[in-house]
Structure formats: structure tokens, C-alpha cells
UniProtKB/TrEMBL annotation:
<dbReference type="GO" id="GO:0003677">
    <property type="term" value="F:DNA binding"/>
</dbReference>
<dbReference type="InterPro" id="IPR001789">
    <property type="entry name" value="Sig_transdc_resp-reg_receiver"/>
</dbReference>
<dbReference type="Pfam" id="PF00072">
    <property type="entry name" value="Response_reg"/>
</dbReference>
<dbReference type="Pfam" id="PF04397">
    <property type="entry name" value="LytTR"/>
</dbReference>
<keyword id="KW-0597">Phosphoprotein</keyword>
<feature type="domain" description="HTH LytTR-type">
    <location>
        <begin position="138"/>
        <end position="237"/>
    </location>
</feature>
<dbReference type="GO" id="GO:0000156">
    <property type="term" value="F:phosphorelay response regulator activity"/>
</dbReference>
<protein>
    <submittedName>
        <fullName>DNA-binding response regulator</fullName>
    </submittedName>
</protein>
<dbReference type="InterPro" id="IPR046947">
    <property type="entry name" value="LytR-like"/>
</dbReference>
<feature type="modified residue" description="4-aspartylphosphate">
    <location>
        <position position="55"/>
    </location>
</feature>
<feature type="domain" description="Response regulatory">
    <location>
        <begin position="4"/>
        <end position="115"/>
    </location>
</feature>
<dbReference type="InterPro" id="IPR011006">
    <property type="entry name" value="CheY-like_superfamily"/>
</dbReference>
<dbReference type="InterPro" id="IPR007492">
    <property type="entry name" value="LytTR_DNA-bd_dom"/>
</dbReference>
<keyword id="KW-0238">DNA-binding</keyword>
Length: 249
């Protein structure tokens, strides 16, 4: 099976380079290579596209404006020299953000993520969440029926746009047809956001450094600057509360 892709890039040198890279990946088929977002909009309106590789800053319509104007957008992977657009891009559930100049190694990593996303979407499971109340579990539908999961056994949850991937402490992975934002509203308060794409179980934290969190089991999760201070404050508060309780005895 081949995945249809579309290139949008106003710089001819960078467009040719991206096209050359993508042409080497057999699982992809380049349907078109556009200079402007307005051209791309016409193609997206009439052709099935699975993955869009788009620049952000373009003369007529920006890549972000194009994405906002699409009703059911395909996977978007942005390529740009302007890193300040990264935060807004992830708010739009963009799958990835590749800084220019684009390297083949970085591009392949992004493509693998996109293909995993598409494959998961084709066989996505449905999350059936119980009303929590005093319960510490929920049910998720899998290929064999319904699996019961305890909230505490979930190590982290990764966003894949309109659905989420849950990773448990025994190495099992479940995919839920619900986005990370809505899922977070149904989880206990020990699940915390540390990145646009990740929720983690606070109780599974082993260590925190400037760029990532190491969880129980060895998983390494990136941490955004905007969430790092909040996490460290939470760690400090819980440490102080524990010390206070121990002192009381």
C-alpha cells in the first residue's frame, strides 16, 4: 500500500530537495508539488491526500491558515525555519514540525510517525470510560472484546491527533478514539500534561532533567519549557506535603 502525499513549498530549491527525498521512499507517492497554498487547496479538495509536507511562511496563504481552513485535513507535517510557530502548530494537532534545512534522517523519523498514525487510525479501538466516582478503572474495547484497565497501571498517553495511545506498565499499548484534551478531562488528577503530545502518570516519574522525564520502565518523555516549571512546582509541593505528614508522627 502506498500513501499519497502533497508538498507545499514556495522556495524552489527546498521544494526540489524535499521532492528528491520523498521520491526515494517507496511507500509514498507524491501526488503533487505546489508553490502556493492556494494551489494545494484545490488539490486537497479533489484528491485523496494522506500526508501533507508544508512550509508555514508562504506569500499568499500560510501553512497554518491553510490547515485552519480545511474541514477534514489529512496529516500535516510542517517544515520551517521559524521555530516560533511550533507551539501554534501543535495546538492544531499537527503531527510533526521539522526545522529547516530538512535532513533525510529527520524526515524518515517523521514519516514513520505519520504511517504509524495512519495504520492506527484504520484499526482504532474505542474507549469506553466508566463514570469514575469511587472507581479506579475503566474499560477499553480491543480486538477480543473489552479490557479492564486500572488508571494507576497507565504510564503515559501520547496524542495522535484525534485519538490517543495509552501505554501500560506491562508494555501493552491501547489506542482510543478520543483526543488527548478530552481524554485528560476523564482521568484522575495524577495524570499531568508535560508536552503538547504527552500526558504522564505523575506516580511513575523516576527522574526529571531539562529536556525529558524518565518514567518507571525506562520510557523517556519530552518535556516542554512551558510545562517544566509547573511540574517542578508540583514535585516540590508533594515533597513538602510528605515531609509535613512524616513530621506529624
Amino acid at each position: 500500500m502506498k500513501y499519497n502525499c502533497l508538498i507545499i513549498e514556495d522556495n524552489i530549491i527546498e521544494r526540489d530537495l524535499l521532492e528528491m527525498y520523498l521520491d526515494k521512499i517507496n511507500i509514498l507517492e507524491i501526488k503533487s508539488s505546489c508553490q502556493h497554498a492556494s494551489e494545494a487547496f484545490k488539490i486537497l479538495s479533489s484528491t485523496r491526500i494522506d500526508i501533507v509536507f508544508s512550509d508555514i511562511d508562504m506569500p499568499d496563504i500560510s501553512g497554518i491558515e491553510l490547515l485552519k481552513g480545511l474541514k477534514n485535513p489529512p496529516i500535516f507535517i510542517f517544515t520551517t525555519s521559524h521555530l516560533e510557530h511550533a507551539a501554534e502548530s501543535f495546538e492544531l494537532d499537527v503531527l510533526d514540525f521539522i526545522p529547516k534545512p530538512v535532513s533525510m534522517e529527520r524526515l524518515i523519523k517523521s514519516i514513520n510517525k505519520a504511517i504509524e498514525h495512519l495504520d492506527l487510525k484504520s484499526k482504532v479501538q474505542t474507549l469506553e470510560v466508566e463514570q469514575r466516582g469511587d472507581r479506579d478503572f475503566f474499560f477499553i474495547k480491543d480486538s477480543k472484546g473489552y479490557a479492564r484497565l486500572n488508571y494507576e497501571e497507565i504510564v503515559y498517553i501520547e496524542s495522535f491527533g484525534d485519538f490517543s495511545k495509552l501505554r501500560t506498565e506491562n508494555g501493552q499499548t491501547y489506542t482510543a478514539l478520543i483526543n488527548l484534551k478530552n481524554l485528560s478531562l476523564q482521568l484522575p488528577d495524577f495524570f499531568i500534561r508535560v508536552h503538547k503530545q504527552y500526558l504522564i502518570n505523575f506516580n511513575k516519574i523516576m527522574s526529571v532533567n531539562t529536556s525529558e522525564i524518565i518514567l518507571d520502565g525506562g520510557a523517556k518523555i519530552p518535556i516542554s519549557i512551558s510545562y517544566r516549571e509547573e511540574l517542578l512546582q508540583l514535585i516540590n509541593n508533594r515533597t513538602l506535603n510528605r515531609i509535613a505528614k512524616e513530621s506529624a508522627f
